[in-house]
User: Fold this.
Amino acid sequence: MKKPVVDYRTFRLSRINEPQFSHLKLLWGWIVYFILFVLTENLIPAESCTPMHCRLDDIIPFCEAFVIPYVGWYLLIIGSLGYFLLYDIDSFRDLQKYIILTQMIAMAIYILFPSRQDLRPAEFPRDNALTALVGLLYSVDTNTGVCPSLHVAYSIGIASAWLKEKTASVPFKVFIVFCAVIISLSTAFIKQHSVVDIFAAIIMCIVVEGIVYGKTYWIKKIRTQ
Assistant:
């Protein structure tokens, strides 16, 4: 079993500025995000939001089975950040910076250009445990603040981090990419997002990829080859 690179058992909040623990300050980004999420969800009325829609949205059917990868996204985030936190601090920093930047950009867009989607079915075509779970998601997450999709952005960011991880095997990297793709598709199949939101997230991630990794990563990669 691999040994963590940092012994977090000795961590105290008073030691957060010490070099071995300073990376933990990046986790504050999640608190800021959740505060902004609650504010935008409750203070921006749906009537002032622009509906996101394209022809592909009408072609893609509602499929409750996709709620499984949609919910699996939470495990992907926790598992990936947890692994890097224990075994690769540099990758943790890069991934957390990636997430914070996507959060900041998305929140700025949600405020300056409020968006919503009107794709959710009035009635589910089937009555089962999966549609019940989709209904629960609908109840806790409004249909506003959707473009770009953070579900997609985080998935791309995590896939990017794992593809750069030297200790990860090729089959595992393929698995992570598959997870990122199926999670991104799930947002459209359970009608949480428009395809427009997915493409907007991809564009945002291209920008963030350049900011977080930029020339430094690619120069190092070329030199090590």
